[in-house]
């Protein structure tokens, strides 16, 4: 049975980004206090860009000991890192370029490789860094939600949904860029905390599907076994569930 799953609705995307930044800062600072270091899994797509830019601002940057944070990616498109579709490029432009972390603390998915090779390379680096015992327990995993209910690059009907052993696999998206690499459910559900960021009316049907426990929506299968899962939604994305309780599946 997963631990707490909670939801907060914010009036606007700007308020959503600010609320998300508060969670990121709190979780990473607490992890460094507790363990001396922190791990942050970055999401791709467009929604997190405002969050990343906010975290990188001079007034907020000092709230996190960024030199103690390791950065990972929940998924990547199989394109070069300079490609406009690259999740790494978006994160670098919005956050990592400003923070200028030690290169060894950024675990980029090498999307320039063929999908299978890129997934195996990422998996090997994760296991070399975090051990072979089982899925690493990342402190904070950022995720988005697609209109079809996907999250990371775990798309409906894709074989990646059924992976129970590997940490990262190749995946196929129904839209370009089709070739992807994604973390798998075992990793997402091992997290200490997952934070979904969802904005826009186009996401309302998918949010409602997850809230109703529709397991055909891959995002509905993210429920950390011993962690928190928080959904931050703007009012437009929450339109289909207004007035529901705190648990998206409740
Ligand atoms: C990606 C993301 C993907 C994204 C959703 C929402 O590589 O695109 O990992 O899961 O979070 O598709 O994307 P938007 O934030 O652009 O709506």
Q: Overview of this structure, please?
A:
The chain has 250 residues and is of the alpha/beta class. It has a single domain, classed as Rossmann fold (3-Layer(aba) Sandwich), CATH 3.40.50. Helices cover 30% and strands 18% of the residues. The protein contains seven helices and nine strands; from the N terminus they run E-H-E-H-H-E-E-H-H-E-E-E-H-E-H-E. The strands form two sheets. Strands 1-9-8-5-2-3 form a six-stranded parallel sheet. A three-stranded antiparallel sheet has the order 4-7-6. Strand 8, helix 7 (204-211) and strand 9 (228-234) form a beta-alpha-beta unit. Helix 1 (13-35) packs across helix 2 and helix 2 packs parallel to helix 4. The radius of gyration is 17 Å and the shape is globular. The protein binds 6-phosphogluconic acid. The site of 6-phosphogluconic acid has 15 residues, from loops.
Strand and helix layout:
Blueprint: E1 5-10, H1 13-35, E2 38-42, H2 48-55, H3 58-61, E3 69-73, E4 75-77, H4 87-99, H5 115-130, E5 140-143, E6 168-172, E7 179-183, H6 185-188, E8 193-198, H7 204-211, E9 228-234
Parallel strand pairs: 1-9, 2-3, 2-5, 5-8, 8-9
Antiparallel strand pairs: 4-7, 6-7
The structure holds 6-phosphogluconic acid (6PG).
């Amino acid at each position: 049975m997963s631990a707490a799953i909670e939801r907060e609705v914010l009036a606007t995307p700007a308020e959503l980004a600010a609320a998300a930044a508060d969670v990121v800062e709190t979780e990473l600072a607490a992890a460094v206090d507790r363990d001396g270091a922190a791990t942050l899994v970055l999401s791709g797509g467009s929604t997190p860009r405002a969050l990343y830019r906010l975290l990188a601002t001079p007034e907020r940057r000092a709230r996190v000991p960024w030199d103690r944070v390791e950065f990972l990616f929940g998924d990547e498109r199989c394109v070069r890192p300079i490609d406009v579709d690259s999740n790494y490029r978006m994160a670098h432009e919005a956050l990592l370029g400003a923070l200028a972390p030690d290169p060894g603390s950024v675990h980029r998915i090498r999307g320039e490789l063929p999908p299978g090779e890129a997934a195996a390379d990422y998996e090997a680096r994760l296991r070399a860094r975090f051990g072979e015992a089982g899925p690493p327990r990342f402190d904070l995993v950022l995720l988005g939600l697609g209109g079809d209910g996907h999250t990371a690059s775990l798309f409906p009907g894709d074989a990646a949904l059924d992976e129970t052993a590997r940490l990262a696999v190749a995946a196929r998206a129904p839209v370009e860029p089709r070739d992807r690499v994604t973390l798998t459910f075992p990793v997402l559900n091992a997290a200490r905390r997952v934070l979904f960021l969802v904005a826009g009316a186009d996401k309302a049907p998918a949010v409602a599907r997850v809230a109703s426990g529709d397991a055909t929506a891959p995002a509905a299968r993210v429920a950390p076994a011993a962690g928190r899962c928080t959904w931050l939604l703007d009012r437009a994305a929450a339109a289909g569930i207004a007035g529901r309780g705190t648990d998206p599946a409740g």
